[in-house]
Structures are given as C-alpha cells and as structure tokens.
Amino acid sequence: MKTLWTYSHAAPVHGLRVGPDGGIVLLDAPGGHVLLGPDGTPVDGSRRARVADLARSATRRGPYDIVTDDDRLTLLLDGTELEGIELDGTVTAVAAARDGAMVLAGTEEGTVYGLRLPLTEAGAMTLLDKEQDLLRHPDATTARRAAHLYLDTGSPCFAVRRVRRLGQRGALPPGSVEPVIAGIALQHRRVLRRDPGAAFEAGVALSATGEDQAALGLLQRAAADPRFRSRALYTAGECFRRLGAESAAAIAHEQAAASGPGEDEKRVLYDLARALQEQDRHTEAVDRFESLLAWDATYEDAWQRYDHSRNRARSAGPAVGRRSPVGSAAGLVRDLEARGLLGRTDSRIESYDATFYVQFDHTGVHDSVKKRLEMVQLLTAVEDPGAVAASLDVGSGTLRYPQVLDRFGVRSYGIDLSDAGIHACVDARWARRFAVADGTAMPFRDGSFDLVTCMMGTVNHLSAAQRERFLAESFRTLRPGGRLVVSAWDPACRFQTFLSFYSPAEMAQLRRRLTEPRVLREECAAAGFSGVRTTPFCTFPDWLATGADASGTSGADRLAWLADLDRDRVAGDPATVGQMFLLSARR
C-alpha cells in the first residue's frame, strides 16, 4: 500500500467516517469533529456531509478484508495477505473510501493516513474471477499459470502466499505447489526477503525441492520473526544436514527447540487454560496461563483470565482444580510418585548419566522429562501392569524399565548389546535378570513373555532389515495375547531435539534412521501383530518441560499436566506430531 497523504491531529484518532463525496470526519476529537477533504487537508467545518459508519478495527470493502494488529494494517484478498504496512502507532480507526481505491487509518499517535490500495475493487474482482476460471479444471499446469496471474497483478509475496493457500485448500493438484513456489523464490529472492511470512513459505518450498542453499537465506530471514522462528530454524537445520554441515544443523535444531512457542503452541495453551477455567478447574488453569504469560504477556485476554482463575482458586481453597477428568494422567502420575518412581533416588544412575552429559555441558533436565512422559505412556498402554507376569525390555541399558515394572510385581528382564550400564548402576541380583544379547536374535523360548518393550528410540538405531527381525523375534517370544510396546523419535516433529547427551554425529546418524509412525505400524502388522496403534507424546518444545523433572508434588503436578497436554492435543487433532510416539500392538 502506498501512502498518499497524512494528517497530524493533536489527539488520538478515535474514529473515522467517510462521506459520499470523499470527505473524512474524525470522530470524538477535542472541540468537536474535524472534517478533511479527499486529499487529507482540513475543510470548513460547516460543510455538510452525509457519513457512513464503518467498523473500528476491521472492515470489509468488496473483495477485501482490512485488519489491524497493533501498528500494522494488513489487506487480505479472499483470506490471503496482499500487502501490509506499519504505521506510527497502534491503529485505532479504519475506514474505506466508497470508490474502493483508498483506505484510511488513524492511530493512537493522532495521525490519519490516506493509503492507496494496490488493486482497485474492480481489479481485485477481475483477479478472483480469472483465478476461478483456472481452478474449474485443474491440471498439472494450473499452479504455474495461477502464479503467473498473481505475479502480473499482485506481487511475488502475494503469489507465494496465494499458491500455498490454494494448495492447503486442495484446489491445486498434489505435488504441484512446492515446485511452483520454489520457482517464484529463485526469481524473486530479494523481494521475498522483505516479508518474513513469504520468506518462510518460499524457504520451505526450496527445501522440499532440493534447493537447500537457496532456502537457507530465506529461512534465516524468516527466523527473525517470532511467528516463524521455531519452524524456520528447524527446516534450516534439515537443509544444513543434507548439505553435510552437521555442526550447523545441530546448532539450528537446538535453537529451534529453545526458541519458545510459536503461535500454534500459544493458542493451544490459551485454549486449554480457557477450557479448564470454564470447568471451574482454576488451579490448573492458573498453571497453564502462567506458562503462556511467561512467553507472551500480551496474549489476548490471558492476564484478565489468569487473575480471575487465581482469585477463584484462592477463595475456594486448595481443593479447587484438583479433580481430574476421566482419562486424566494425574492419577497415574500420583501412583508413580507413591511408588518412588519419579524421584532422583539412585545416585549411581545419575552419576552414570552425568558422564555423558558433561561431554556437552548439558544437565539432562529435558531428557528426564521425556523419560517420565514415556513411562506414563507405557503404563497407560499396558493398562494393568499387575496382570503382566513376565516382561522383556530390549535395549535395556541400565535396566530402567525392568526396575520400574518390578515395582508393580512384574518378573522383568532386560537385554542389551553392552553390560556397561548394568555393572555401574544395579545390584547383583539384577545381573541375573540381564543378558548381553541382540534384539534381532533373542535367547528365549517361544511364548516366554506377556510384555516386550523397546523404549527411548532404541528401534531408531535399527535398519529396516533389523527391524523386521526384531519384530519377528518379539512376536515369537510373546505369549498369545501378549503386548509389544515400542517408543520412537518422530521424523516429522519440527522441534525435535532427541536426548541431549547425543553428539551432533549421533544425532545426524539417528535422523537418517528415523521411521515414520505409519511405516512402523505397517511393519508391525506385516509381522503378524494386531490392534497396532501409535500415539504421539512430547507434543511441545523442550522449553515447556521446565519443572517437570523435579521431585515431590511440584514435579508430579507439572508432569501430570504435560501428560494431559499431550492427551488433549492428540484428542483435538489426531494428526498432532510429537518428539516421540508410542506404538502398541497385540500378539
């Protein structure tokens, strides 16, 4: 949008109206209304003008939507941003001239802007009509022809956004969107760099079409905007990895995980907090609102809602918010706490783990949370650990899960390719429950176990052929009706960080072996298992896990609401992706 003229007023602009002759009235001005002419110059106040009321913060004019966000005014064409402009202060009033060629905006600073639209109302309608003609009979060339239409009448930034939006609507043939956006990006990179949103979409398309070097500049430009930072950095890390720059990839992925929430994550926190508030679970609502406010203290009406829930929680006493919904993880977490499974009680395991963390100056805080959430997912999948007579953990390391299941009365065993963790971390009696063995050739009789587990991404270290043998061995050693539970890292997660004691080389190797949930489900079914299902967890970046590794009630509370956050996100959107997923199947 081009600024045609500005008018400075002595006070904030509280309203604008436009008369049929183009005259503009400033409402609520001290000393009465001020009347401007179409060119922004004051005119005789006695001149009469018929005025039309328009919306204060958003208005519709023909095919356009005009919306405001603080000091930014954005022009949308059929829901796609055409252009935006930043003004000198918070936008307090918006109006559109009747000829559809100009938008008026007033700010808290007292400035009135006359802005020319990039397309007249008639031009915008013509563009949409031509677009509809193209989309009536889509073929392999439709996306390319639509892009040329937008470039001729709009801008490269609009062309990128519009092609992406039509692709999301399913209006363009599958597979045609990324190459077309990448083509626009290669020709107009300098223009796209000025717009973080368009730069992000263009960078993603370049990455998807193998243009990794070209993608990096656009993705790093997009990462300067908080709205795209996490996703842009993660995609940039994938570009670096494919280019062989492993250290740069590791840094980008670490920055992505530590960059805080994007708009999607903030919306989830806000919606969960509101839902809890409406259920009178105010203590839990306070906790979620505090997590949101820590990252965005201006998010919608979060402060007001937080104050309301905090006051209600105080007045109702400590019992408010403690009841859990059906299916809540809180009861299971309390059971784990009562059995001593959430505390840091084994100094040998802590010391053993510390030898890995010290290599990279990490504390393992987030690793601890991932392990605890995995434990919650495992016991949820098992349903009744007390009904399990015997279990086997493959890739058992320090025999963590055999010791956990032992607390539930399970006769539990473990195997691993190395016994280093066993010698360092467990009592002699556990040595009789452990064997140095390969999960692809287990030294046990058929039908030996009720439960076989393979946890914390161990399966991601296996090749496809090794996974086939592991699944066959699991099927053989399980009793009829027995259960297989596997946890794995999800390659689709954009805030993936794995375990922090992995070196950059180990992470790079692991990424090459990651298996999509769909693929693992298909392999499991092919091995003869039934009831195969996968459930994502750790559906949030690491920053949100702070505090859930602590011992005692505070850590258990935090862990319970993280587990409930996972559950609520998956229930609300089955396509949700987490850092990990749990596979469960029956023999």
- What is the mean predicted local confidence, pLDDT? 82
Q: Report low-confidence residues grouped into runs of 5 or more.
A: 45-61, 318-327, 354-364
**How large, in whole angstroms, is the Cα Rg?**
29 Å
CATH superfamily of the largest domain: Vaccinia Virus protein VP39
CATH architecture of the largest domain: 3-Layer(aba) Sandwich
Approximate shape: elongated
Number of domains: 4
**Computed structural class:** alpha+beta
Main sheet characteristics: 7 strands, mixed
Strand arrangement, largest sheet?
A: 14-13-12-15-16-18-17
Which range best describes the helical content: under 10%, 10-25%, 25-40%, 40-55%, 55-70% or over 70%? 40-55%
What is the CATH third-level topology name of the largest domain?
Rossmann fold
Multimerization state: single chain
GO molecular function: S-adenosylmethionine-dependent methyltransferase activity
Domain Methyltransferase type: 392-486
InterPro entries: Methyltransf_11 (IPR013216), Quinoprotein_ADH-like_sf (IPR011047), SAM-dependent_MTases_sf (IPR029063), TPR-like_helical_dom_sf (IPR011990)
Pfam families: Methyltransf_11
